[in-house]
Structure formats: C-alpha cells, structure tokens
Design a protein that fits this description.
The protein is α/β, with parallel strands linked by helices. Helices cover about 40% and strands about 15% of the residues. It has a seven-stranded mixed β-sheet, with helices on both faces. Strands 1-2-11 form a three-stranded mixed β-sheet.
C-alpha cells in the first residue's frame, strides 16, 4: 500500500526526503561533506547559536534535567517555564502567557477552546496547516475566505446569523508567501461584527514591529487584539510556542486545552534558552536592523536578476516557479552552486505554485548575499527561469 502511494507521489514530483545538516546553525553549514550557504533557516536573528542562549540551556539542563518528566499539571511545571511565561507576557504587553511544546500544539489546543460546535470560523485560505487542523477540531462551522480578501471576509460575516459566536483566524506573517495579513481591516471587521480575531504570529514574532513584538505592533494594534499566538523556534532560536492574552483566558486554557493538559512539559533547557533569547533580542536591536538590511540586499538583487518573486514584505522571499518538477530542478542547481534553499511543493502550497523559498537572517554577511546572487543567476539560467 505504501509503495503504491509513494510511487504516485513520485510521479508528480511530490516526494520528500530529509536533508541532514551535519554541522552548524548557519549561515554556513555542512551538507554531504560540503560547506553550503544556508538560505532556508527561520533562525532570523541568529539566536540559536548565541553563547548566552546556549549557556542558559546548559545551566537549566544541569539544574532541572534533560526533560520535565511530566505534564505541567502534574510535576512538570518548573521555574524556567514560569520565568519564560512572565517574560513573554511583559514582552507582549498582556496580563499573562502560556507556553506549549510547539506551534502546532498551541493552535490545535487553543482554537477548540475558543469556539465550539455552535460557532463559526472564518479562516484565510493560506493559513498554516496547524490553524486549519485547529479549526477542524473545534467542530464549529468552518469557512475559508480568499487570501487577504477583506471584502470576501465581510460578505461571509454579513451572511451569518446575528449573535452567532464567530472567530476570524489568520497568520500574521504568511510563511510561504512572506506577506502580511491586513490586520487593521481584520480588526475593524472583528469589532464591527462582534467577532474574535486569532493571529498566528509564528514568523512575525521577533521580526516585525519597532521592538520585534510582531505584526500587531507593526500595525500599531497591540492593545486592540486580545490574544496572540507565536512560536519560540524561529526568531527566538529555541523551540515551543506561546499564547499571550488576558489572565482569565490563560487560566481557562490551563483547564481546557487538551494539547497542554495531555503533553509532557517542554524541556527546561528550551524554556531557559527562549528567555535568554528574549533578553538578547531586546538588548541588541541591531540584530533586527542587520536582518532587514540583508533582506533588502537579497530581495533587490533577485528582482534585478529577473526572478518572479511573491509580494513579500519580510525576510521570507519566495521565488515563484510553477510546477513541482521545475522547482526541484532549480533547487538542485542551487545546491550544486553551494546554496541550500529547498523547493516547496503541494500540498504545502497550492497546485502550480511551487517555489524555492529563500530566507535570510541577521547573521548573513554582505559577501554571503553577493555569493548567493551569483549562484541564483547561474541556477536560474540553467533551470530556464531567467
């Protein structure tokens, strides 16, 4: 059975394989014995390899062990978890925060607690898979609105029954296109129609906004969006996720969120690492400045070369290719040129929108980006894209 299904995937160039990274966290890593320029990491601020972050993880491991040993509601709630949640609430300007072992667990554990069988969920078409699964698990009626199409969303809101509990769900920064949700318009519609707005800010946290607080801060909406979710495995360089919001909501999640209640607590090392990363991020705003300078250098260079780029406004820069086979060929040519930026294919993205997804970090040097642009030019010509 599995061989047949794998053969069908292969016929459409949709099989995946793991690419082991043998050393380093970037920007140069070892792949199959070669030194390769990494342009596929979400470690946007280079904090995964920061000495202070690593040392905090080591000290927490030495003091509390390699694992928490139990769920948070049993004996797994340790000082590093509490310190992190306090720091996150202060960072996000909310009353409280709760951490989860991953962004997927945060979304599938939170959305069903916010709305149930009698409710209505309206979600952006390009929402992350974990958001979609969280919506389905809620058992609420579930409708999709066209990507960032505020008019379509409003038409769906206008058709609902008066007083029906409604949740609008969106990414803040979309991970496969690099564009932002129109949060001011979404927030206005939520208020006008008495709906709640749920934002997954996994890729916006640490990156967007004057202080890196995310897409809500970027749009000046910090106080207007009651709860926000974000992850700790991207700009924070650790692992896990959080939900920040009113203290009553956090207490409610502790009592009702299945993915929180029935999961072993995150390792104390990852919690301590995330707290240290937050300190470094706030102390060194120049990291974000370097990130954006690198992003502009790479984005403008790819435009000059003639690539078809998505309307990205972030460090996520997708080069649109179209069919999966062509995207794979382009990525293979890039790797031969010493650059790792893998092809992204369905079902991660819609049919005929396969792409090479490029990400840049604060730790790339101008020489890295200039080398990458030479590689992109050669690979693009060989793949017939430019």
């Amino acid at each position: 059975m599995f061989d047949k299904q794998l053969s069908e995937l292969a016929a459409h160039h949709l099989t995946r394989r793991l690419t082991p990274i043998q050393s380093g966290v970037g920007p140069m890593v070892e792949i199959a014995g070669r030194q390769i320029l990494l342009l596929a990491s979400n470690d946007y601020l280079g904090l995964a390899g920061h000495p202070e972050v690593i040392q905090s993880a080591i000290e927490a491991t030495q003091q509390f062990g390699a694992g928490a040993g139990a769920s948070r509601l049993l004996s797994g709630s340790l000082p590093p978890h509490q310190e992190l949640e306090s720091a996150l609430a202060q960072f996000k300007g909310t009353e409280a925060a709760l951490t989860f072992s991953s962004g997927y667990l945060a979304n599938i554990g939170t959305i069903p607690t916010l709305i149930g069988r009698d409710g209505l969920i309206l979600a952006d078409r390009l929402c992350h898979a974990s958001l979609i699964d969280g919506c389905r698990l809620s058992a609420a009626d579930f409708r999709i609105y066209r990507h960032n199409d505020v008019s379509h969303l409003q038409s769906l809101l206008a058709k609902r029954r008066n007083g029906r509990r409604t949740l609008i769900v969106t990414d803040g920064l979309f991970s496969m296109d690099g564009d932002l949700a129109p949060l001011p318009e979404l927030s206005r519609l939520a208020q006008d129609y008495e709906a709640d707005l749920y934002i997954d800010d996994a890729h916006g946290t640490g990156v967007m906004g004057p202080h890196g607080r995310g897409t809500a801060e970027h749009f000046g909406l910090d106080t207007q969006i009651p709860f926000q979710m974000g992850t700790l495995g991207k700009a924070f360089g650790s692992s896990g996720a959080y939900l920040a919001g009113p203290s009553a909501l956090i207490r409610y999640l502790i009592n009702t969120s299945r993915s929180f209640i029935f999961t072993t607590a995150p390792p104390p090392s990852s919690a301590a690492a995330a707290t240290a990363a937050l300190r470094v991020m706030q102390r060194e705003p120049e990291r974000r400045a370097r990130l954006w300078a690198n992003r502009e250098r790479l984005f403008s260079g790819l435009l000059r070369l003639g690539f078809n780029l998505s309307p990205s406004v972030s460090p996520i820069i997708p080069i649109l290719v179209g069919n999966a086979e062509a995207a794979l060929s382009f990525a293979e040519h890039l790797l031969a040129e010493g650059v790792y930026a893998p092809a992204i294919r369905p079902p991660t993205v819609p049919d005929e929108t396969s792409r090479v997804r490029v990400t840049v970090t604060s730790e790339h040097q101008p020489s890295h980006i200039d080398h990458a642009l030479i590689a992109f030019q050669r690979a693009g010509q060989l793949a017939g894209l430019i």
